[in-house]
């Protein structure tokens, strides 16, 4: 099964300046087979994107909030802890 799903941001620390680029990275410590990813913000069920590294090229104030990624190997699914992103 999948485990060790974590979420990192670039710039690090979860703070990004208004209008700057934000890159999120989802990593999986253990898991086999091809992995798929989905992204969510603020507990919303609407996916923000797929892939291990979504990018927001020009963040706005509305992009602040808690982000999570879900990883799936087709049989199991695991979520990262939420990461708070603050747009300054």
TrEMBL record:
Top-level taxon of the source organism: Eukaryota
Pfam families: Ig_2
Residue ranges of domain Ig-like in the record: 1-86
Gene3D superfamilies xref list: Immunoglobulins
Organismal lineage: Eukaryota, Metazoa, Chordata, Craniata, Vertebrata
Protein name as catalogued: FCRL2 protein
InterPro entries xrefs: Ig-like_dom (IPR007110), Ig-like_dom_sf (IPR036179), Ig-like_fold (IPR013783), Ig_sub (IPR003599), Ig_sub2 (IPR003598)
SUPFAM superfamilies: Immunoglobulin
């Amino acid at each position: 099964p999948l485990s060790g799903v974590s979420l990192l941001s670039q710039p690090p620390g979860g703070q990004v300046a208004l209008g700057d680029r934000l890159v999120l990275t989802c990593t999986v410590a253990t898991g086999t087979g091809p992995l798929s990813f989905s992204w969510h913000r603020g507990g919303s069920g609407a996916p923000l994107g797929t892939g291990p590294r979504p990018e927001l090229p020009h963040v706005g104030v509305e992009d602040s909030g808690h982000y999570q990624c879900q990883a799936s190997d087709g049989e199991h699914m695991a979520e990262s802890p939420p990461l708070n992103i603050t747009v300054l």
